[in-house]
Amino acid sequence: MFFFRMIFRSFxxxxxxxxxxxxxxxxxxxVSVAMLGVVFxxxxxxxxELSTYGSNITVQPKADAVVNDLYNTGGDAxxxxxxxxxxDPTTFLKESDAxxxxxxxxxxxxxxxxxxLNIHADVNCASESVDSRxxxxxxxxxxxxxxxxxxxMDSGESTVAGMNGMRSWWKLDGSWPKDDxxxxxxxxxxxxxxxxxxGDTVTLYKTTADxxxxxxxxxxxxxYDSGDSDNNAMYIPSSTAQVLxxxxxxxxxxxxxxxxxxxxxxxxxxxxxxxxxxQDEWETWYCTAYPSSIAYQIEEVIPGSVAKQVRQVxxxxxxxxxxxxxxxxxxxxxSLVAAAIAVANLMAASIGERGSELALLKAIGATDGxxxxxxxxxxxxxxLVGAIVGALLGxxxxxxxxHVVFGSGITMRPMVFxxxxxxxxxxxxxxxxxxxxxxxxxxxxxxxxxx
Length: 451
Fold this sequence. Notes:
Shape: elongated
Order of helices and strands: HEHEEEEEHEEHEEEHEEHHHEHHHHH
Strand order of the largest sheet: 3-4-11-8-10-9
Strand content: 15-25%
Helix content: 40-55%
Number of helices: 13
Radius of gyration: 33 Å
């Protein structure tokens, strides 16, 4: 009875240690699969999240781009109506060319875009019976644009583009105007200055290049708060702005929101001079969604244009992505190190308790290699069970992270599981090394005689 009780106690202790090894490997696999799964899928999701705060590519006429570079007048892509310039544009792109942006190689990476015609006009209350000097303003920035315009492409597909999706951070009191209408949005600062509210009607007056004085009545459908100097402006449909300024089919800027790959050395080299690339470099760059390659392809389809990435946005996307990935990779490494330490300690304790058993095996003829393979096989089977369970749990944790942080699931790539199993295999082997050395040092005569 005593003999069976000792065997049961020994088995119970070994079962607990084996269970602890399985749990340790399971936890490490859970963290590794979850973190690496997010790392491999986080790029597009982070870019999509950050792109809600504005465009990352702007398209201008070549002449304007040259002036901006020469005098360093280029600014934030999202402050076109900030009122920093009192002059109207003198060079233009064709509004009818704007939909061609959705025909480039990376068309599906273009999530939204909006053309703009930036002009200045005098604003007055529409009701001339109102004698109020406060209801007047001169040289007000007016942005003619799309709000939610449906485009029917030659391929038969349809897409919606406009400021509705480009300015998602705006706080809007009211509703978005309809395209090709006499409606508009007004910034909070300008609305306060004029004393108008949503539902009111104002009149815009514009002296055109030929000297004529045009006017246009605009019904205010909403008042927006952009949080910057753009609150001094008014947004109206592009077709209405073109009629007011007598500039048919004319725009001076296109804001583009695109999902991009962070710049690397190749992308930076190409942005300086694409012609300096070798053939292989060119193909790699052109077929990768770098901001510079997307901008280059936009220039190919928009005649007379220069497309440039907004450096602040592109740099922010790259920095946030790299830091996020670094944190997740660090967590993976730390989990593997913790697993290695725990497995090494548990195996050492197990070998210490099973010293007599292992010594007896060596005494009856088992070689050091056979005993080592036996211990490794046991550890491998236990670790494999823990890794499989951990991989399943890690996939679930990755989905939770995706939905909580990004509002969508994580696509688990097969290479994540392969990489984690390889890393865990190396971790267990490294952890087992010291234990195997202790097995090789066992001397059956001394162990069996209690020395």
